[in-house]
Design brief:
Layout: H1 9-49, H2 68-96
């Protein structure tokens, strides 16, 4: 089924691919523009509210009555206990089939 207009299949393919690339580039540019607009609105709202945008997560303050080595030892002890419990569970699971 050759094209009646005399256009080769390679030329049609190249034209279709060029159109596809143009659509993808246009879609990408629209997405970037929407993202930039959204970020600009969020930045403007943060500036109006006096928020500097800096976030710092604090899990728990250190206990001033314990040394840091003792606190680290406690954490490592808990990790060891969990590891042992997992090992026991794995041994039981392997033994029961």
């Amino acid at each position: 089924m050759a094209a009646t207009s005399g256009e080769s299949s390679k030329a049609r393919y190249e034209r279709a691919m060029a159109a596809r690339r143009a659509r993808e580039e246009r879609t990408h540019a629209e997405e970037v523009a929407r993202s930039d607009a959204r970020n600009e609105i969020l930045a403007r709202k943060a500036a109006e509210s006096g928020d500097d945008g800096i976030r710092q997560t604090v899990l728990a303050p250190p206990d001033p009555n314990k040394s840091s080595a003792r606190q680290l030892g406690g954490i490592l002890g808990i990790m060891l206990l969990i590891t042992v419990l997992i090992g026991i569970a794995a041994t039981i699971a392997a033994a029961t089939g």
